[in-house]
Amino acid sequence: MKKVVIGLFAIIAGTSFAMAEDGGCEAFKWPVTREQILFAAAPATPSGTALAVGAAADLALVPVEQAGFTLPPERAPASDTFGAVASVEVPSEGAIQISLSGEAWIDVIQDGQAVKSAGYSGVKTCPGIRKSVRFKLAPGPATVQLSGAKKAELKVAVLALE
How confident is the model at residue 8, as a pLDDT? Predict the structure, then answer.
């Protein structure tokens, strides 16, 4: 009986490991290898700062009530969560990809209007990267709002599309 239990455990564990491997970072709709590299060396950055396209930041978040959102987040955050506001200069191509290390809602605002995402991919089995969202914007300044994070820090990468 003991051998049967151990055998079943080994089969279940092997299957779970294989599923996690298959559903890891490769399960994103687009590659996230750039984010993995950037997140490893992301500098600590306070809320309210500018994010650079092609770089990552280890963003310090504040309680959502103190975040100073330009517009209310599309998805209302719980009161015991964290958020941040940052600026970004959108390149001439106009499309950017914002990737996060953990769960949070992303709103991008340009010219006083919230911009709907053009694509989303999220995976819970990729170490260090939780979601990646694409936006089609006009070149120029935009505001990135993060809300609903359960932790007071979040790695954020802003990249041009590949």
Answer: 37
